[in-house]
Amino acid sequence: MEAWKEIKGFEGMYSISNLGNVFSVKSNKLLSVRESKEGYLRVNLNNQGKRYTFTVHRLVLESFDPIVNMDEFQVNHINEIKCDNRLSNLEWATPKENINHGKHNNKIRNYRSNNSGNCKKKVICTTTGKPFNSISEAARYYGIKAKSNITYCAKGLAQYCGILEDGRKLEWMYI
């Protein structure tokens, strides 16, 4: 079940969930995230005209599992998938522990080869039963211009995204 907490320093403005979703109270919507060149998801938060950029994994762990001296620790992704920001996949680690975790799991490789495709979410159009390897692929197939609309639908924030020629509404879910 998705649980939410206010983000420290941005109380009343932004919340983060234990699944890694970031919500803006003011705009009443989920914020979009972007992937850094290292493969981590980042989000921009605004406060009094200033923009701040945070990694989503750090916001999740700081909000749901705060510890003393957090600045001395790094966030380790237990399954080594950098865009999997579920609380159950995150843990505090010293820099040495974080590096050793990757070596132990034989997963330290070039970012491009290690993470290509890991962050893509598979979806299915429940109206037609057609599965897709990514939201981009689904959007291209049905000619949907805004990929984010499929995302909103798959997250249950919208009822449908797209309409077939026969008038049926395209409904989506993650697989």
The SSE order reads: EEEEEEEHEEHHEEHHE
Q: What would you call the shape?
A: globular
Provide mean pLDDT, rounded. 85
Number of helices: 5
Number of domains: 2
The computed structural class is: alpha+beta
> Unreliable stretches, pLDDT < 50, 5 or more residues?
107-117
How can the largest sheet be summarized? 4 strands, antiparallel
CATH architecture assignment of the largest domain? Alpha-Beta Complex
As for the CATH topology of the largest domain, it is Homing Intron 3 (I-Ppo) Encoded Endonuclease, Chain A
The counted number of beta strands is: 12
End-to-end separation: 17 Å
Strand content: 25-35%
* CATH class call of the largest domain: Alpha Beta
Main β-sheet, spatial strand arrangement: 1-2-3-4
Global Rg: 18 Å
Q: Please give the share of residues in helix.
A: 10-25%
Characteristics:
175 residues; alpha+beta; Homing Intron 3 (I-Ppo) Encoded Endonuclease, Chain A; 2 domains; four-stranded antiparallel β-sheet; 23% helix
